[in-house]
Amino acid sequence: NDLLDNIHQVGECNYKGLINKLIHHVVSSYAKYAEKRALVAALLENLTNETDGGDDEKMQEAAMPLQYVYDGIRAFFIDVHELGMVEDNPKLWDSLADLLVHCLLRATFSWGEMNYLIPTKFLHSDDVWQMMVALFKRLKSEANAVALCCNGHFDILQKLFSATKTPERV
């Protein structure tokens, strides 16, 4: 409970920035921070899921609403665009895809919620296409990802294909 109390003390206005900084840190190096991406996904799961209080206790409220995770990831997309981070880190989308796969496999959020992670203005950008390609490549290597993938990826793919069908994307 001390961890949850400390997290509440940080203040709601800082959650988005905290998540954004966590993501920046773990995607900054593809090879160096692979294990940390899995740990961040576990942290996000623990912070956003309700917990069982024990035998006689009722469910405890999540320490942090999932909306803050969405906001932090969206802020990361904006930073990537504004700061031109892909030029400095060509494996950036692979690293982000790795983090998102860990979150999906841990049920931190579902495929249906992926739509909330990507800012609307970037939904049809080449950056999002690269991230989705990296995400599906990474999912291919997971044993239990077939059901996960089949249950939810059509929504986001339909949105990606509906806006622009350039020759290189068809």
UniProtKB/TrEMBL annotation:
Domain of life: Eukaryota
Protein name: Uncharacterized protein
Lineage: Eukaryota, Discoba, Euglenozoa, Euglenida, Spirocuta
